[in-house]
Amino acid sequence: MTSISRRQALKLGALAGSSLLLPIAFQSRSYAGTAGSPSVTPFTLPFRVPPVLNPVRSDSTTDYYEITMKKALVEILPKLKTEVWAYNGITPGPTIKQNKDRRSVVRFINNSVGTPTSVHLHGMASLPQYDGYAEDLTNPGQYKDYIYPNNRAATLWYHDHAIHKTARNVYMGLAGTYLVQDQEELNLPLPKGDYDVPLLIQDKQFGSKGNLIFDDQGQKSQMGDIILVNGVPWPKMQVANRKYRFRILNGSISRSYQLALSTGEPLIVIGTDAGLISAPVPTSSMRIGMAERYEVIIDFSKYAVGTKIVLRNLQPPNNDNYDNTEKIMQFEVVRTESDPSSIPSTLRYVQPIDEASAVRTREFRYERSNGLWVINGKIWDNQRFDASPQLGDVEIWKIYNNAGGWFHPIHMHLLDMQLLDRNGKPPFAYEKGWKDVFYVGENETLRVIGRFGPNSGTYMSHCHNTVHEDHDMMNQFKVGEATVNLASLAPAQSLPAPPL
Ligand SMILES: [Cu+2]
User: Fold this and answer.
1) I want to staple 34 with a disulfide (CB 3.0 to 4.6 A). Which of 91, 225, 365, 432 is the partner?
2) What is the DSSP annotation of 66-97?
3) What residues sit around ligand 1, an ion, with C-beta below 5 angstroms?
4) Can you give the CATH number for the domain in which 381 is found?
5) pLDDT digits over 205-229, tens only?
6) How far is the CA of 292 from the centre of ligand 1 (A)?
């Protein structure tokens, strides 16, 4: 059933007397107004891109980075200060840009962030002890060096994954973009450099003094009335009349989006979570759940200088909608430029995994039971494995959401998988690529297929509504033989840290 959130119910109650006199459409606008954040006029603040992080040092195989997690006061809303918990004190954190097959060592220092942390590089096939296992904690006063192989080109993100604290830690600011590129991709004539732009979308709720409000509605969801792109509320981006590549990441806690351009022109999808797809897919709109990534080309050459184009949100079901949550950001064409880029008709071939190669099918039911979010009726247990494939096994996972009141984007660590079907029907054309998050919508059953590897070990799988994940919609699988206590393999160390 459709559930009305506590916040909506309160607002409905407050307005009940007058709303009886209003037509239905008007009623829904009335209670949807805002969640009480200070007002910001959309498209007034300048767009920005997080800075790219320079390595502390490099050698022939490896780049060494250092990131300090700390509390910081930043200006998100005009003239107000907001306390964030952030990588290097900025949110989103700095972008790491790396080349395929060069190794990264990233030292994450838990300085004054005031919460235990575990850093997950989402989309990377890390060894289990560097994967941000939820109970592999780095406490305040400790640091941990994470090693990343960068085994393929894709748009990834790093974010907190601490047990039972992930939603709040990410909400408070612990998220950043991590890009891996390779020569094959760079050789394509796609937009590059300043025309290859990350868009990290989040929604937040603020108090009157600018403080972030984390209200998970009784462990159901955290949805805000302010939409941020790269940390800026509804920014306006000035563009040239040419093609741009956007790497879109939904970094929200609980909100999904249906993206579309106000002009009705298509978004041209060129990549999914784990990199380029076989061929470009133009689409008039597209859905993106939490932690999903899509790469799209927007071609501004169709528009005269002075044209303003809004990236809109058509608001999928079971999101709390407010006055301006239907908007994301605005592009304004401000100059003419020649455009050397083009969209090749073939990008990077995605070899479909043959269903016949699957050695088994497993079933996972994501549901709410007795006030908890559960998988097959069970909550998180670090001693229990809900799947134990051998290294290289191909498996089909059948994922059920037999409820109409919520959706669950399901994330598998370690491996990239492919969506076979949703309720027996083919995936959307733009979903046909390598993915590590699958949008399991209301009353939907998905079948996904993947080859377990390239590493053995213990890995998690969970809903990426991180409120659901925290309470307790998360389980683990082991590939081959696995060590249960991952924290013992590469434990966090006490500060001060020696030089990297
Ligand atoms: Cu969920």
Assistant:
1) 225
2) EEEEEEEEE--STT--EEEEEETT-SSEEEEE
3) 408, 463, 465, 468
4) 2.60.40.420
5) 999 999 999 999 999 999 999 999 9
6) 14
